[in-house]
Amino acid sequence: MINPIWLKTFCTLVEVKHFTKTADKLFMTQSGVSQHIRKLENYVGSALLVRTGKSFSLTEVGQRLYQQGKEILNANELLAHSLLIDEPHVGEVKLASPGSIGIKLYDALLDVQTLYNELAIDYRFAPNEDVEHKLKNKVIDIGLTTELCKEESVISEHIGYEQLVLVTHHTNHSVDWKTLVSLGFVSHPDAAHHANLLLGSNFKQYHSVKQFRKVGFSNQIGLILEPISRGIGFTVLPQFAVSAFAKQALIKIHPLTHYVKESLYLCRNRQAYITKRSEFIANQIREVIGLT
């Protein structure tokens, strides 16, 4: 690999066309400039300059090296500049969250992105444990979870709530424990956590989702309610996911005695550098959730 310092000295000399002026421009001695040129010639195995008194011209190899060397130096400068860019509306921000809050947030963040075309949103849907794992390994900048993260390297900030609801087919006008057992449970990645919160607060018979016959499973947030809309089973989901389901007329949300909401946390790796764009998006998320 060509030493970039030697290359810069050579390209500057070609442009300035004078050893002493090159030395002044690079804050070097004239002998230092000459030494860099000799080292570069030894490295490429060919003369780069044809010296005539105090002037010089380029050899064919020298001309090619200058042309390609300038491209390399310009690319290096652009890279260095891009690494230093830290603006709130420029660059990529990587996020992950469970599906329900993701449905609400992703749409809102796309609205933000339409205002700032140099901002890029990379949004992944994942259950709580996967979000925490991605944060621990610095795969994402921001994570949203519905549980406090257990990893010491991850910090959690409480930013809001989301109501949990019990959903059946629209023909089920009311539900009791016997009805739920008869219907069976449509599961999803966070189903046990949601059921423990909502059913555990409203049915004294409840101990675990294993008490119900499992009649389906989906890890796609937009499909969890599809079997429910066809009369298959019941489930427990956050309100955002239920509100986004297209076939509202085919499902029914059942009011229960005890209203239950789960906390929403904005999480980050405490050891990761927080860019201005990441903080900008975090503030947008805080506004969207707004401690609802």
What does this protein look like?
This protein has 292 residues and is of the alpha/beta class. It contains eleven helices and eleven strands. Strand 7 (185-187), helix 8 (191-202) and strand 8 (214-217) form a beta-alpha-beta unit. The longest helix has 25 residues, at 60-84.
Give the topology, please.
Blueprint: H1 4-16, H2 19-25, H3 30-44, E1 49-52, E2 55-58, H4 60-84, E3 91-97, H5 99-115, E4 119-125, H6 128-136, E5 142-145, E6 154-169, H7 177-183, E7 185-187, H8 191-202, E8 214-217, H9 226-229, E9 235-238, H10 239-244, E10 251-254, E11 261-269, H11 276-289
Parallel strand pairs: 3-4, 3-5, 7-8
Antiparallel strand pairs: 1-2, 5-11, 6-9, 6-10, 6-11
The low-pLDDT segments are: none
- SSE run: HHHEEHEHEHEEHEHEHEHEEH
Average pLDDT score: 92
Number of helices: 11
What composes the largest sheet?
7 strands, mixed
Strand percentage: 15-25%
Number of strands: 11
Helix-strand makeup class? alpha/beta
The coarse silhouette is rod-shaped
Secondary structure: helix percent = 40-55%
Q: What is the end-to-end distance?
A: 57 Å
Rg over CA atoms: 31 Å
